[in-house]
Each structure stands twice: as C-alpha cells, then as structure tokens.
Amino acid sequence: MTPAWKEIGVGVVGFGTVGTGTVRLLLDNAEHLRKRVGVPVRLVRVADNDTARDRGVALPEGVLISDGMQLARDPDVHIVVELVGGTGVAKDFLLEAIRNGKSVVTANKALLAEYGPEIFHAAIAAGVDIGFEASVGGGIPIIRTLREGLAANRIQGIFGIINGTCNYILSRMTKEGKPYADVLAEAQKAGLAEADPSFDVDGIDTAHKLAILVWLATGGRVPLKDIYVEGIRDVSPDDIAFAKEFGYAIKLLAIAKENSSGIEARVHPTMIPSHYLLATVDGANNAIYVKGNFVGSSLSYGQGAGMRPTASAVVSDVIEIARNVLRGSTGRIPPSGFSLADLKMSTQVTPFDQVQCEYYLRILVMDRPGVLSRIAGVLGRHQISILSVLQKGRGESAVPIFIVTHRAKESNMRAALAEVDRLPDVLDRTRLIRIENNL
C-alpha cells in the first residue's frame, strides 16, 4: 500500500432516492468500509440542485453543494459517484471527473446504453476505473458475475427479468386475475410505478439493461435500435389464464442468445414453463439466468431496485475502486472484461424477423363452422405448424381461439397474421406472445 494514502475521498452527484441511500450507507457503515479497504472511505462532497430539502441524513457542514462540476474537480474527491440519471448533465459530470483523473461509479443504465463506448474509452485513456454494478439488477451482482466470475466462459444465453415494475404487475395479474390497467393504477398509488410508467412497461428500461449485458457477454456493443422491444400493456387476463392452464408463466424477458447468424437481442412478454425457477420470480424482484459453455446454467436473484439494494451495489463499486487506487492498480480489469485490443464497436445482431421460436396466438372470431380450418390454412401456407388449439365458449357471437405453434420464423408469423386478421370471421387484431421452452 502506498503510504501517502491516508483516506479515499468520495463525492456523490445526485441526492435523490439512490443518492440518499448511498450517502447513508457511506456514513452508517464507515467503520465497516474502513476495515474492508484498509483506510477510511470518507464522504467529502454531495452535489444536488436542491440543497434545502430534508433527506433525513445529517451531513457535516460544507459537504452539500449545488455544483456538480465543482465536485468533479475537487482535489479531495478521488471517486465520483454519478446518481443524477438521464443522458444529459450526467454524462458531463462523468467525463469531467475522468478528465480530472478521478475514477467514477454510476447506476445510469440509459447513459451507458447510449454513450457507453465514449465513456469507457475516456476512462481507459485516463487510466481510471469505472464501476456500474448498480446499472443492471439493483443489488444483484450480475455485472461482476459476467465480467469476472464467468469470464472463462463463452456466454451462450442470457434470460433476464430485470424490471421490477413489470414483474410486479404481471405477478399481481397472475395471482389475482386482474386486468393490466387496474394493477398498474394500484401500483402507481402505492408508489411502485411511476406516474408515467412508459419507460418501464414499454420495455425501454429493460432494453437499456440488456444492451449492457450483451456488451459484457460478447465484448461488442448492441445499438438500442437493433434490440426488438415490446412491452406488457397488451397482456390480458385471458392470456394469463391460458398460460396457467397449460403450465406457463408470462414474464417480460430480456433475451440474448447465440444462434448461427449472430446474437439475438430482444425484449418482450414471454411464456416460459412454470416449473422453471425464472417463472417463480415474484413481485418486484429481478433474476438473470445465464448459460455459459463450460459452467452451464447460473441464476442470480434478488431485489432489482430500491434505495438500499441499489446503494449496496454502488458502494460495492466504491470499495473495489478504492482498493485499486490504494495499490496503484486502476484499470486492472477493463470495463467490459475484454482486453482493449479485442473490444468490438458492435456485435452481429440477428435481424428480428429471422428469429425463430414457438408462439401463442389469441384470435377473436365469430363462432361459425370452418373458421378454424381457414385460420389453419393461412398458417400452413406460411410454414407454421399448429401444436395445440383451444376454443373457449360456444354458441356466442364472438369466441376466442387459443393456438400454440411449433417453432416458426418471425417473418413468416407476421405475414401469416396480417392475412389472418383480414379474414371476415376474425373480429380483432390477433394477440401474439412468444414462447421459450428451452432456457
């Protein structure tokens, strides 16, 4: 250890929910952190636009300031923690800190998904570390798992429940049979969903996290535009009931897996067999299932969001970086876990219309003779084979038909459904959910 280091100074930019949790952890567990690192890890500065609001944390005089750039340049701050969020000033704070020779920690998945290569290359060029464990999975150490624990493996597949809001809504719908809109309203009232839930329920948050996971698994960047994204707004109690009856659960999954033409990267509601561990993940919890070519299957589970779990992940990065700073070993592990010479600006993503899987279809039809045969004929003309069919209700003017198919190509399925939906006996747009039977 270099004798000159008497302590490691930490600055936190952003004093919101996660920032408050991080500050509280740094203060409450200060002695524990000292034992872990070997010298005190001292909270030197906290920066936030709002310096008047009471967060329930007593800060020493002069610690709380309003200028994030001042914090990023402060010579007494050795590690800058960015918890502002978004892709604007958060990026400026990080790059300014790096330019000033400081290692950085962030929980900002949107920023990393959009501007990760620029930020990571800046950190490498400056010889500083960047920690981002809290960007995916909250308190689940999935970043460290992929970057270090499973580094010997070629990662063949990732299947993740990585948005707690969506998993909470789908879990409630499954247990109580309530429609999506009712459960969402209750979640918003309880503070478990945002007033504008689009970022979560439309799959955008999950796609940001998947982009980071694919980068760690392959060493190559996946642009967000190349990730197919579909949210949970259209999942109905009928879909949930069918899934339960036939031994499935519906989850919003982030999926990345190898195939013959590259990497599939997609986010959408997915039916998975109910006996899989991933299907049992309830409430706002997260889980990430990883398949490596030597280790086999691994499941990481825990709280994927919230003040305390996310703060735990943030400070775990602070500890790791503080150890590196003390020993003069910053940059020991590259941000992606791949050597700089082997980093790829992009990875080959399979076009979504070439993806193959099984499908669940819900088709609302007039209850007339020959309807099913006409639908089957259309599917057959598009090389889609039916595995099973269920019709609920008879003698009514409108009845749902539920169909499960064998594996089919996405482009064939879309073409078939465009034709099915034009049939005179089909009353509404066909609802489709993809099935993954072989995780």
Task: Kindly describe this structure.
It is a single chain. This protein has 439 residues and is of the alpha/beta class. It has three domains: 8-139 and 307-342, 3-Layer(aba) Sandwich (Rossmann fold); 142-303, Dihydrodipicolinate Reductase, domain 2, CATH 3.30.360.10; 352-435, Alpha-Beta Plaits (2-Layer Sandwich), CATH 3.30.70.260. 36% of the residues lie in helices and 24% in strands. It is built from 14 helices and 17 strands. Strands 7, 8, 9, 10, 11, 12, 13, 14, 15, 16 and 17 form an eleven-stranded mixed β-sheet that branches. Strands 3-2-1-4-5-6 form a six-stranded parallel β-sheet, sandwiched between helices. Helix 1 (17-28) packs across helix 12 and helix 4 packs parallel to helix 5. The mean pLDDT is 94.
Helix-strand layout with pairing:
Elements: E1 8-13, H1 17-28, H2 30-37, E2 41-47, E3 64-65, H3 68-73, E4 79-82, H4 89-99, E5 103-106, H5 109-126, E6 130-131, H6 142-149, E7 155-161, H7 164-176, H8 180-189, H9 198-201, H10 204-218, E8 228-229, H11 237-245, E9 248-259, E10 262-273, E11 285-292, E12 296-303, H12 307-326, E13 356-366, H13 371-381, E14 386-391, E15 398-405, E16 408-409, H14 410-420, E17 431-435
Parallel strand pairs: 1-2, 1-4, 2-3, 4-5, 5-6, 8-10, 10-17
Antiparallel strand pairs: 7-9, 7-11, 9-10, 11-12, 13-15, 13-16, 13-17, 14-15
Helix pairs in contact: 1-12, 4-5, 5-10, 7-8, 13-14
